[in-house]
């Protein structure tokens, strides 16, 4: 199983340094999320800051994990993907996700109606633009009609892999039907991957389909410290209405109610870890000593082609996140 990393940095320079450390540790892909930074800008920094192996073969991949599919036009997304693949010398992977309704409508002012066909249309348009034909047309929930335009630069590759993020069964099935890979939510334990996600992916996917599970990984010689750092990650999602049913189904409904009430009362969503019991941290993250984390990572073997790991950062001072990432990089290096 490939181990990927979602690097963190207080500055872009520090983030690139972390990506280089991941490359040295043997990570397979570095992924750029989209929340506090632009996924495409971050991916550009990662692409130029990492390298290819001797002999010209790809060394570490670079991907958006994930870029918001609706906040940009599908054509701009395709053009950015082609640019990034050029910067990465053929190592780029385009990861896309819908985000939730409030993020699209309130933050970015874009429609969120019928997200499933809208995402399907986005993938089709991106592929048509990347194919380089003239005209480029598609009619659907999301449409395009471009005539007299052709990208005048030779592509690095004929095909840029597209990954889709999905949690619910319909989005997971869409990834299986239309994409080259699936990217999991960072709260996706092995049992959920095995029992809920993989049966849907296997129903339609090709043999070369890349299943990328994800997990927050908090490593410390003191397992209580490791859990404390990871707790804010779980607390953040416990306060989000979209995940309430998932937590209720697992027996943590009371925690979601407390987290939602705390959020309404003015507490920061990044600082709700004190409401999360250790059992919930253990259920949804990889947190503990290096040995405990190795065992938890091994549980994904045979279920996923890759595991995207990220250090805890929610509600933590920069120095503490930095320390947590150093521990994660050491762990990844010991597993290669």
UniProtKB/TrEMBL annotation:
Taxonomy, superkingdom: Bacteria
Keywords: Monooxygenase, Oxidoreductase
GO molecular function terms listed in the Swiss-Prot or TrEMBL record: monooxygenase activity; oxidoreductase activity, acting on paired donors, with incorporation or reduction of molecular oxygen
Any single Pfam family the record assigns to this protein: Bac_luciferase
Keyword RNA-binding: no
Domain Luciferase-like: 10-303
Name under which the protein is recorded: Putative luciferase-like monooxygenase
């Amino acid at each position: 199983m490939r181990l990927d990393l979602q690097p963190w940095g207080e500055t872009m320079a520090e983030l690139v340094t972390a990506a280089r450390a991941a490359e040295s540790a043997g990570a397979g892909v570095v992924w750029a999320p989209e929340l506090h930074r632009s996924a495409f800008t971050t991916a550009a920094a990662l692409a130029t800051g990492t390298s290819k192996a001797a002999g010209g073969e790809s060394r570490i991949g670079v991907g958006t994990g994930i870029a918001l599919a609706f906040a940009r036009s599908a054509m701009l997304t395709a053009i950015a993907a082609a640019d990034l693949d050029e910067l990465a010398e053929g190592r780029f992977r385009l990861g896309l996700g819908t985000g939730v309704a409030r993020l699209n409508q309130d933050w970015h002012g874009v429609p969120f109606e019928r997200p499933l066909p809208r995402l399907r249309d986005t993938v089709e348009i991106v592929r048509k633009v990347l194919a380089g034909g003239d005209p480029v047309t598609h009619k659907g929930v999301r449409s395009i009609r471009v005539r007299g335009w052709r990208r005048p630069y030779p592509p690095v590759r004929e095909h840029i892999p597209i990954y889709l993020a999905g949690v619910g069964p319909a989005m997971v099935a869409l990834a299986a039907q239309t994409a080259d890979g699936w990217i999991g939510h960072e709260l996706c334990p092995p049992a959920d991957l095995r029992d809920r996600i993989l049966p849907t992916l296997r129903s339609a996917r090709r043999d070369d389909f890349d299943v990328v599970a994800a997990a927050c990984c908090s490593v410390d010689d003191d397992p209580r410290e490791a859990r404390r750092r990871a707790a804010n990650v779980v607390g953040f999602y416990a306060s989000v209405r979209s995940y309430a049913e998932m937590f209720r189904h697992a027996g943590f409904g009371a925690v979601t109610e407390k987290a939602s009430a705390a959020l309404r009362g003015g507490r920061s969503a990044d600082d709700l870890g004190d409401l999360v019991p250790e059992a919930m941290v253990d259920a949804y993250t990889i947190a503990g000593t290096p040995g405990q984390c190795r065992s938890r990572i091994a549980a994904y073997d045979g279920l996923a082609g890759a595991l995207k790991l990220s250090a805890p950062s929610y509600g933590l001072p920069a120095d503490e996140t930095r320390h947590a990432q150093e521990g994660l990089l050491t762990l990844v290096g010991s597993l290669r």
